[in-house]
């Protein structure tokens, strides 16, 4: 997959412990070399989910908790498929069901190459 600096995308999955949906909203940083996590939306508190004041701006919207303005930067993202997690990436109107392409337990690396194009391997 290809994307350029500023391109927004999201990652959706079912939390492996809570068994509830989580969606993370990210973009390729304007520097073209990393990712920035802007927001996370989830239904229940659990391990690895943001809830502290220092994590961003917390709010509740219906059945969901949302942490906005997180602004966490990552040089790459390593995701892992899991049983029942339905790991899915959404980019420019396309849905990529990663869980259908890789067996459970497979690490999936998302990175920005030297040309500033986002790639999935």
Keywords:
1 helix; 121 residues; mainly beta; three-stranded antiparallel beta sheet
Describe the structure.
The chain is 3% helix and 48% strand. The protein is built from 1 helix and 11 strands. The strands form 2 sheets. Strands 1, 2, 3, 4, 5, 6, 8 and 9 form an 8-stranded antiparallel sheet that branches. A 3-stranded antiparallel sheet has the order 7-10-11, with no helix packed on it. A hairpin with a 6-residue loop joins strand 1 and strand 2 (21-28). The mean pLDDT is 86.
SSE arrangement, N to C: EEEEEEEEEHEE
Q: Helices and strands: which structural class?
A: mainly beta
Radius of gyration: 14 Å
Fraction of residues in β-strands? over 45%
Number of helices: 1
Helicity, in percent?
A: under 10%
Low-confidence stretches: none
Distance between the amino and carboxyl termini: 9 Å
Principal-axes geometry comes out as globular
Q: Give the tally of β-strands.
A: 11
Task: Map the helices and strands.
Blueprint (H helix, E strand, L loop, with lengths): L7 E7 L6 E8 L6 E8 L14 E5 L2 E5 L3 E3 L1 E5 L7 E4 L2 E4 H4 L5 E6 L5 E3 L1
Antiparallel strand pairs: 1-2, 1-8, 2-3, 3-5, 3-6, 4-5, 7-10, 8-9, 10-11
């Amino acid at each position: 997959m290809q994307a350029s600096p500023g391109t927004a995308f999201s990652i959706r999955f079912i939390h492996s412990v809570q068994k509830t949906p989580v969606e993370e909203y990210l973009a390729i940083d304007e520097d073209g070399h990393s990712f920035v996590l802007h927001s996370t939306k989830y239904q229940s508190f659990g391990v690895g989910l943001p809830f502290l004041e220092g994590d961003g701006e917390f709010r509740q919207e219906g059945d969901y908790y949302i942490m906005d303005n997180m602004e966490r930067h990552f040089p790459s993202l390593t995701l892992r498929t899991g049983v029942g997690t339905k790991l899915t990436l959404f980019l420019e109107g396309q849905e990529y069901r990663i869980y259908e392409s890789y067996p459970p337990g497979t690490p999936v690396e998302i990175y920005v190459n030297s040309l500033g194009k986002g790639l999935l391997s």
